[in-house]
Write a structure and sequence with these properties.
Layout (H helix, E strand, L loop, with lengths): L8 E2 L2 E2 L2 H4 L29 H12 L20 H14 L3 E5 L2 H10 L7 E5 L4 H10 L6 E5 L5 H10 L7 E5 L11 H15 L4 E5 L17 E5 L13 E5 L1 H14 L5 H11 L2 H20 L4 E5 L7 H10 L6 E6 L3 H9 L5 E2 L9 E3 L11 H7 L5 E5 L5 H13 L2
Parallel strand pairs: 4-5, 4-6, 6-7, 7-8, 12-13
Antiparallel strand pairs: 1-2, 3-9, 8-9, 10-11, 11-14, 13-14
Protein name: Cystathionine gamma-synthase family protein
Organism: Dongia rigui
InterPro entries: Cys/Met-Metab_PyrdxlP-dep_enz, Cys_met_metab_PP, PyrdxlP-dep_Trfase, PyrdxlP-dep_Trfase_major, PyrdxlP-dep_Trfase_small
């Protein structure tokens, strides 16, 4: 049988990403004919010759470019390993990027992407709100190293974004960093507006900032920002891509040129993802389309129920945010609203806690994108490290509850929510 593990089409038909997730990037005949990839539990790899060893080290260090970028050779599991490469190739297919790099966590991926291009004295322009860990990284962890952060809360209107651009004058801006939809409010940015902001900055400083997008909440199934001007995509693969709440991982996706400096940071800092977690991600990619589509449909049904409940003030789900600019940007770049959203109760923290404590089917836990439905109180957990004045300003209030809808029957989940709301 002819090996076709990197075949992207049959005749004139281009194969769909969901088809490629079952086989792309893996040659069974390199692994004793095993239909599924084995877990390559090894720290180092043998060379067929001393010449191969020399070549492979030149390739992984970036000193030379291999004849075929997908076959740079295996050296040491801190640099690369088969389970890693298989999933990286599939992630690049899903996002439409030239390549991908996997990391030990989403925060490792974000940190590497920033450190590869930012230098002391530079300013990172970013959307708000951000995931709490990212916000803390930008305004806290990296600040002592001389990196500045300039946020904007409205990514849909020119005046708000350009005001942040203006406030960054006098410093170099290497990156415009956005999270869209944002965690936990589902705020989004207009990607075309981000490219215009990059144009202004490029004209001012003579170099173009990279547009980095955290695509965890909708990607890679419902949104592909590389198609709308983004340069680099970052992920917490822990969430939907992993999808079973049993691993921690991250990824960066983009062009070969942009991935080069990030790869060097990953190798030097030892941010590599282990073979077993990589293997689990490969397993999960095979069902990613099915899981995300089912969960997204259920979430829309639940959000519709909450939007009419008298004890709910507002529902922050992309389909239910009634703002014309929001809906224009959302419908232009996304195919669905995903399954993670937030809502606010009429009571404050005490009422929110009472509601959370009376649920039965929802698991009270942080994270999102798993097969089980999760629910949390962002202000006291994932965003507790963000100053309260910033939390309140960006809408992460004490009355806000975030829900990640899983694969349970949506009517069962609605019954659970209804019972808990009655006691608030």
């Amino acid at each position: 049988m002819k090996s076709s593990y990197r075949q992207g089409s049959i005749g004139n038909r281009k194969l769909s990403p969901e088809t490629l997730m079952t086989s792309y990037g893996y040659d069974p005949f390199l692994s004793e004919g095993s239909v599924k990839p084995p877990v390559f539990l090894t720290s180092t790899f043998a060379f067929k010759s001393a010449e191969d060893g020399k070549d492979f080290f030149d390739y992984v260090s970036g000193r030379r470019v291999p004849p075929n970028a997908q076959d740079a050779g295996l050296v040491y599991s801190r640099f690369n390993h088969p389970n890693l490469q298989i999933v990286e190739e599939r992630l690049a297919v899903l996002e439409g990027g030239e390549g991908a790099l996997m990391f030990a966590s989403g925060m490792a991926a974000i940190t590497a992407a920033i450190l590869a291009f930012a230098r002391p004295g530079d300013t990172i322009i970013h959307s708000q709100p951000l995931y709490g860990g990212t916000e803390t990284l930008l305004v806290g962890t990296l600040a002592p190293f001389g990196l500045k952060a300039q946020g904007f809360m409205d990514g849909l209107h020119e005046a708000a974004v350009m005001d942040a651009v203006k406030r960054s004058e006098g410093t170099k801006v290497p990156i415009i960093y956005v999270e869209s939809p944002a965690n936990p409010t589902c705020g989004i940015v207009d990607f075309e507006l981000m490219t215009r902001a990059a144009d202004v900055i490029e004209k001012r400083q003579g170099s173009r900032p990279l547009i980095v997008v955290d695509n965890t909440m909708l990607g890679p199934i419902f949104q592909q920002p590389l198609q709308f001007g983004a340069d680099i995509i970052v992920y917490s693969l822990t969430k939907y891509v992993g999808g079973h709440s049993d691993l921690v991982a991250g990824a960066v996706i983009g062009s070969t040129a942009n991935l080069g400096p990030i790869r060097k940071i990953r190798s030097a800092f030892g941010m590599q993802l282990d073979p077993h977690s990589s293997w689990m991600l490969g397993r999960s990619l095979e069902t990613l389309h099915l899981r995300m589509e089912r969960a997204s449909n259920s979430a829309a049904e639940i959000a519709r129920y909450l939007s009419t409940h008298p004890k709910v003030v507002a529902v922050y789900h992309p389909d239910f945010i009634k703002d014309a600019a929001y809906q224009r940007a959302y419908k232009k770049s996304a195919q669905a609203g995903g399954s993670t959203f937030s809502f606010t109760l009429k009571s404050g923290e005490a009422g929110a806690f009472r509601f959370l404590n009376d649920l039965h089917l929802f698991t009270l836990a942080v994270s999102l994108g798993g097969t089980e439905s999760l629910i949390s109180h962002p202000a006291s957990t994932t965003h507790s490290g963000v100053a309260k004045e910033i939390r309140d300003k960006v809408g992460v209030t004490d009355a806000l509850v975030r829900v990640s809808v899983g694969l349970e029957n949506p009517q069962d989940l609605i019954a659970d929510l209804e019972g808990a709301l009655e006691k608030v």
